[in-house]
Amino acid sequence: MAELLNSDLWVEQYGDMLYRYTLVRVKDPDDAEEIVQVTLLAALQAKDSFQGRSTEKSWLFGILKHKILDHFRDLKKHRTYELASEDGPDPLENAYLHNGQWANAPKNWDTDPHKAAENSQLVEALSMCLDKLSEKFRNIFVLKEIEGLASEEICKEMEIQPTNLWVILHRARNQLRKCLETSHWNTRK
Amino acid sequence: MSKNSKDLSWMARITRWFGVTCEDTTPLISELMDHNLPLGKRLRLKFHLGMCGVCRIYEKQLEIIRALARKLGEDDAPTQKDAGLSEQVKARIKTALGDQN
Fold it and tell me: What is the CATH number assigned to the segment(s) A2-78?
């Protein structure tokens, strides 16, 4: 079925799609461009092994996902996933009264997960908030919630302790909550 | 750290007695999204959520964030609509593909 592939058209047909998909996961546009190029080159090399069991598009996206994970593995070589001041404070640090109850109760966002996911403005708001996280928090949140990796897999790949992972995810979620509340719910009429 | 029980509402007293306050609960809500909790912790969490509407709102917010993240991860996510490779980059990639072919 290899004759179904047409590498000449890949860039025109799938280039932007692959790039946008990558840009959600990898913040830096230069890195995203590089990953798309590496993906298409790998696809070209593996062209003969394409079995035609999937569409050309899903085959390319399958390769892209591996290349994105490779990118995160490479990043790990240059940085630590220990918490640092650059990660910002936990927004919940002073959120409680002395008796452990909320001092400022979270606002009711007046939607549910399913409806929220259908609201493109909200999805875009999350995308913007995600870019405000520290690189470390963003990477871990992306691996967990966007790539859908299991916690054990993230710990293994990024060489971090489970407790450290939970603290990072908890704080990342709280920073995203705060950002969404400020950028989306506070600006609604 | 004087925590005078006279200052506490009935809910705070019960939750204190049960060993879980809102402050204890929020990390557990997040943690349960990532892995299973031991039975004791899970029961205390469920007990607290059963009686604390504010923490239920917090739990729902985290579920909304998760749903938004999953949507964002789809290949037709409604973001970066205008983003695309520049013509220059496309040309570079085509050349690289041509060189390898």
Answer: 1.10.1740.10
> Is B83 a member of any domain?
no
Inter-chain CB proximity B79 and A124 less than 8 Å: yes
Cβ-based contacts of A180 with chain B (< 8 Å) = 65
- Torsion, Cα A104 B15 A113 A95, to 10 degrees, reads 20
Q: Answer whether B19 touches A (CB < 8 Å).
A: no
C-alpha distance from residue A132 to each of A112, A136, A141, B35 (Å): 24, 11, 12, 26
Candidates A93, A170, A104, A100; CA nearest to B21 is: A100
Cα separation, A130 vs A110, whole angstroms: 22
Report ipTM for this prediction. 0.89
CA distances for A4 relative to A1, A9, A37, A49, angstroms: 6, 12, 21, 12
Whole-angstrom distance between the N-terminal and C-terminal Cα of chain B? 71
DSSP character string of B43-68: HHHHHHHHH-HHHHHHHHHHHHHHHH
**Chain A residues close to B51, C-beta within 8 Å:** none
pLDDT attached to residue A188: 60
Question: Residues of CATH 1.10.1740.10 domain(s) within chain A?
Answer: 2-78
Residues A13-50: tens digit of each pLDDT: 999 999 999 999 998 999 999 999 999 999 999 887 77
**DSSP code for B83:** -
Q: How far apart are CA A37 and CA A108, in angstroms?
A: 44
CATH of A85-185, one of 1.20.1090.10, 3.40.50.300, 1.10.10.10, 3.60.21.10: 1.10.10.10
Whether chain A has a CB inside 8 Å of the CB on B38: the answer is no
Residue B38 lies in a domain: yes
CB contact under 8 A, A117 and B8: no
